[in-house]
Design goal:
It is globular and about 60 Å long. It folds into two domains: about 180 residues, Glycogen Phosphorylase B (Rossmann fold, 3-Layer(aba) Sandwich), CATH 3.40.50.2000; about 170 residues, Rossmann fold. The longest helix has 19 residues. Helices cover about 45% and strands about 15% of the residues. It is of the alpha/beta class. The protein starts with a strand and ends with a helix. The strands form two sheets. It has a seven-stranded parallel beta sheet, sandwiched between helices. Strands 10-9-8-11-12-13 form a six-stranded parallel beta sheet, with helices on both faces. The model has no long low-confidence stretch (mean pLDDT about 95). It binds uridine-diphosphate-N-acetylglucosamine (UD1). The site of uridine-diphosphate-N-acetylglucosamine (UD1) has 19 residues, from α1, α2, α5 and α11.
């Protein structure tokens, strides 16, 4: 049973459900955390992910009741479907709820994207990761550093280094992403604009932080294309920042973009400004310089590899980093194909899940 619910999880799970299991079948469960067409179904369509077998339709609410409701509905489907194994992805509320429901039902649990830490337990994502890792029988890590972190924490689950399906999905999509026609509807050409996204609670739920980020956007030497996450739009309006940004002729605010459109906007941009973990990695894979609106990143390879600058949210720091990033020529970028190993991460994950399911059958 693969449990997903939020946009990044659809991207991570997409290549995994394409793989064959050894003696088992997939059962795909969608918690309903993300429910808009553009945040959910659009991704299933673009990534050819099968329609979920179970739709829990939990929808938007405060985190505690949302997680509680997810656990309750997951408990019911686990009772009904009796999975051999549950797998959860990433670090969202759907991840935590899936982990708790599987654990409480006594079903073996695998966490895909285990071992990542920001060190900041105030981030909901960090709490979700730490608790999920503690409960997991199999910890699928995207790289060796994550395995080291788990070892230092004394993790008891079996650690499997499978690589990162975010890279796998984005690598496969390159022929679509490099089509510049996909960015022309935004009124821009290749190399002529900066691509912006931000949605993390720490960035957008605090009026001061969000104001600083928008300040920086008024002073960027290129056009800005900014697809706005629903949480961010709500906050920009609430904090009185939306109108001035929307009226500024160098900034294009749009609806959340689909997956392929997002990759195309990353591929052809002069630089990325983001607080998203997925977009930091997609930009790194495509060789695109990135300015990250955080002081730390869980994806340290993107910084060590020279593509990503951690600028935080001070406007001066953002502007300086962006000026440096856009000075790099767009046309001699190299795609870092080596980030996806062989066998592919999705194949390794499917094999690990088959093995975990088999282990449980033997234990019985
Ligand atoms: C969640 C994850 C975050 C992940 C992000 C990707 C948690 C704690 N956070 O944050 O780690 O990076 O997903 O997007 O799980 N909304 C809509 N339509 C939708 C989905 C959400 O309008 O389809 C609105 C919600 O009503 C809510 C806001 O956006 O007001 C935030 O949604 P929520 O799922 O709580 O968290 P994200 O900010 O998306």
């Amino acid at each position: 049973m693969l449990i997903v619910g939020a946009r990044p999880q659809f991207i991570k799970a997409a290549p995994v459900v394409e793989q064959e299991l050894d003696g088992y079948e997939w059962l795909l469960v969608h918690t309903g955390q993300h429910y808009d067409y553009r945040m959910s179904r659009a991704f299933f369509e673009e990534l050819s992910i099968p329609t979920p077998d179970r739709q829990l339709e939990v929808g938007p609410m405060a985190p505690a009741p949302q997680i509680a409701k997810m656990i309750e509905r997951l408990w019911d489907v686990i009772q009904e479907d009796a999975p051999a194994v549950c797998a959860v992805f990433g670090d969202t509320n759907s991840t935590l709820a899936g982990a708790l429901a599987a654990d409480l039902a006594g079903v073996p649990l695998a966490h895909v994207e285990a071992g990542l830490r920001s060190g900041d337990m105030k981030m909901p994502e960090e709490r979700n990761r730490v608790i999920t890792d503690k409960l997991s029988d199999v910890l699928v890590v995207p790289h060796e550093r994550a395995a080291d972190i788990l070892a230092a924490e004394g993790a008891t689950g079996k650690v499997i280094d499978a690589g990162d399906t975010t890279y796998e999905t984005a690598l496969k999509a390159i022929p679509l992403a490099e089509d510049v026609e996909r960015v022309s509807p935004f009124g821009v050409n290749r190399g002529e604009y900066v691509f912006v996204t931000c949605h993390r609670q720490a960035t957008v739920d605090d009026a001061g932080e969000l104001r600083k980020v928008t300040e920086a956007l008024f002073d960027i030497p290129l056009k800005v294309v900014f697809p706005v996450h629903p949480r961010t739009e709500k906050r920009l309006r609430e904090f009185g920042l939306w109108d001035r940004l929307a009226e500024y002729n160098k900034v294009t605010l749009t609806e959340p973009a689909g997956y392929i459109t997002t990759l195309a906007l990353i591929y052809s941009t002069a630089a990325v400004i983001t607080d998203s973990g997925g977009i930091q990695r997609e930009a790194y894979l495509y060789g695109v310089p990135t300015v990250t609106l955080r002081d730390v990143t869980e994806w340290t390879e993107t910084v060590d590899g020279g593509g990503n600058t951690l600028a935080g949210t001070e406007p001066e720091a953002i502007k300086t980093a962006v000026r440096k990033a856009i000075a790099r020529p767009v046309d001699n970028r190299l795609v870092r194909r080596e980030l996806v190993g062989d066998p592919k991460p999705s194949k390794r994950i499917a094999d690990a899940l088959s093995e975990l399911a088999g282990r449980r059958t033997c234990d019985k």
